[in-house]
Amino acid sequence: MQATADTKTHAIDEQTVLRKRMKKIKHKIAVISGKGGVGKTVTAVNLAIAFAMQGHENRVGLLDADIHGPCVPKMLGMEDEKLKVGPIGAFPARGPLGVKVVSMAFVLAGKEVPVIWRGPLKMRAIEQFLSEIAWGELDFLLIDLPPGTGDEPLSVLKLLPEMDGVVIVTIPSEVSQNVVGKAITFSRQLKVPVIGVVENMSGFVCPECGTETHIFKTGGGKKVAQEYSVPFLGSIPLDPRICEASDLGRPFIMEYPDSPASKAFMEIVEKIKTYIQEREKQSSNETGDK
Amino acid sequence: MQATADTKTHAIDEQTVLRKRMKKIKHKIAVISGKGGVGKTVTAVNLAIAFAMQGHENRVGLLDADIHGPCVPKMLGMEDEKLKVGPIGAFPARGPLGVKVVSMAFVLAGKEVPVIWRGPLKMRAIEQFLSEIAWGELDFLLIDLPPGTGDEPLSVLKLLPEMDGVVIVTIPSEVSQNVVGKAITFSRQLKVPVIGVVENMSGFVCPECGTETHIFKTGGGKKVAQEYSVPFLGSIPLDPRICEASDLGRPFIMEYPDSPASKAFMEIVEKIKTYIQEREKQSSNETGDK
To answer: What burial letters (b/e) apply to A131-148, b meaning 16+ CB within 10 Å?
Structure first.
């Protein structure tokens, strides 16, 4: 009985600490996908860097909350980083342009170990972990959630209060569109606003002859966004250098700022900022704050 | 108390029925991936059809056990199919070449509904569902597991006794190789043999000029297979017609039997059959059955 009461008290403490810490972060955006492998993490990483490039150096955080396949450290060349632990909590590692990075990979033993944590214990561990991170003051925190619409993204999203919204990443194929529908329904059920849909892997231009091939078809992202009346944020073309840069641990958007894909990331960030401004205006009107 | 005892008895009954039904299936192969979006389902579907094409018409089953994104029916043009329920159980729907198909999608309400089932109840529902399927006699059953190495593939794999082994699907990028390592460790911990690694999306040949581009790099699947001393089963090239055919609900391997990707699927099936024969020989030697 004693143990249960203790656990409960700790859980409440952690929620309070987590909420207090999250309040210092102006905007929180989750990056989700109805299914894995659509480039959710590549998108989250490049968006975080794009935010930093657009006047928010040292003021952007990136939380890699993908429990089973945390790839952010690998993509940012931060595989050997650890959290620095001090008396008030754990401090994020610093990535390019001062982006503050925390990854589940930092607490997992070896990179080949599958996390066979189960059920309620797992979420307690994550909650505790999240409440211990001293993010400091941030303009934007991007959260790379586990893929899908199952228990894990659900539980992690529930742990993180007051999100500005979610960005849904998809690939253009029809099979993937059904899955985007699920992600939208999922966000709505959790009452988290949908900022918009990003279509990744949208057409490939042959570097030899310039012919564009739609390997995974095209237009699916826009179509599904219209169908569900959510904004369409943009298309990111397939570019072999994205995979190369990610494997080398260098942010693609910094390596190839003039590429069509980098421009697409930049435009998506502008659209997200506009969305947030509109939303703030709306809510200040509603509360008569004006 | 009564309810709990009843539930327990039912669970044991279902396990017995499930085991009995699974005994009529000669070989059971799970298709897994360390992460989603690598083409696990496309691979499972085309392998199932390839088995049927290689002399096993009407003797192949395909179980779509992906709870959150069951895509098999869409890829086989069977979205409107239902399970036929009779006194002894539920009968699989019939796909091309008599492949018997059962999908979690057949029991889910609408295609946009995210399955926010949680924890133990979910697995009970799946166990009950699996025990009710009257597969009949089959040579091969392919099981498309949920992606990743988390609770879901773990729980589903535990429900299915006596697997011949798993086929691990990956894409060639380095980031994905770490994840394959996890999938191999995962299989070993569950004591399910690894039949081998399939590398999907392995290079793209421009239909205009013939130039091959390795959009997701190349060779990663072979490299990781060597590293972990598991067989490498083959590489499937990127082909826009795979996505097109899948979206139209037609098995790619039947539509384009002469394409390099189809030939790759056929060779993989031959390697799987050889693996199974070798394994049977070994175990009959060990039991002195020869």
So the answer is: bbbbbeebbbbbbbbbbb
- Å from A239 to nearest chain B CA? 7
CB contact under 8 A, A189 and B114: yes
At A110, the amino acid letter reads: G
A150 at B interface, C-beta within 8 A: yes
Q: Give the minimum alpha-carbon distance from A86 to chain B in angstroms, rounded to a whole number.
A: 30
B208 to A207: CB separation less than 8 angstroms, yes or no: no
Q: How many CB atoms lie within 10 A of CB A232?
A: 16
**C-alpha to C-alpha distance for A22 and A138, rounded to whole angstroms:** 9
Tell me the two tokens of residue B22.
Answer: 């699974």
What gap in Å lies between CA A269 and CA A285, rounded to an integer?
A: 24
Each residue of B102-112: pLDDT tens digit?
998 887 655 55
Asked if B241 contacts A243 with a C-beta cutoff of 8 angstroms, the reply is: no
A184 CB neighbours in chain B (<8 A) are: 112
Alpha-carbon distance B283 to A108, whole Å? 37
B240 interfaces chain A, CB cutoff of 8 Å: yes
The pLDDT tens digits of the residues spanning B199-249 come to 999 888 888 888 888 888 878 899 999 999 999 999 999 998 998 899 899
Pairing verdict, β A194-205 and B84-86 = unpaired
The pTM for the full model equals 0.80
